[in-house]
Amino acid sequence: MINGEVPPLKLGFSPFVNPLLLQTLRAAYGVLSPRCEIQLSSGDTTHILDRLNQSGLDCAILPMPKDRDLWNVLQVTQSPLVLCMRRDDPLTSQIEVAIHQAAHALGSFATRSCIRLHILDWLRCLQKWESL
Q: Minimal CA–CA distance to 77: which of 34, 19, 123, 125?
């Protein structure tokens, strides 16, 4: 407490974290600590971990930490990933694809506009997949 006030919880999160998880956490924390606000801060995993290391954040929700030996990690959920690929890709013959098998073709996106374009592509791909 600082001057009788509870400092805000500084929570970092990856943009890949499910927004429903953040809403659930905020609601639960609001019930448990109604006088304590949450300050959310989004960023890539490396940036969030750097801020945790420098005490700029109190905790974080990330898809997967880089080094479990350095951080106190508690798994709160798990989400299956869907991999969209061309019909002629050799991996399409498999029911499940290990991440290391597809790693060469995966990437992350540096700008918001790039992310929006790829999300639209993913949504189109998922719509096709669901209609099969």
A: 19
- Alpha-carbon span 40 to 60, nearest angstrom: 9
Nearest to 62 by CA among 37, 38, 43: 43
What is the helix, strand, coil percentage profile of the chain, to 5? Answer: 40, 10, 50
The answer to whether the predicted template modeling score (pTM) of the entire model surpasses 0.85 is no
Q: How far is CA 65 from CA 19, 39, 54, 75, 91, in A?
A: 18, 21, 16, 10, 27
Helix (H) or strand (E) holding 118: helix 112-130
pLDDT for the residue numbered 66: 62
Coil, strand or helix: which one is 24? helix
Q: Which of 2-6, 38-42, 99-103 is predicted most confidently?
A: 38-42
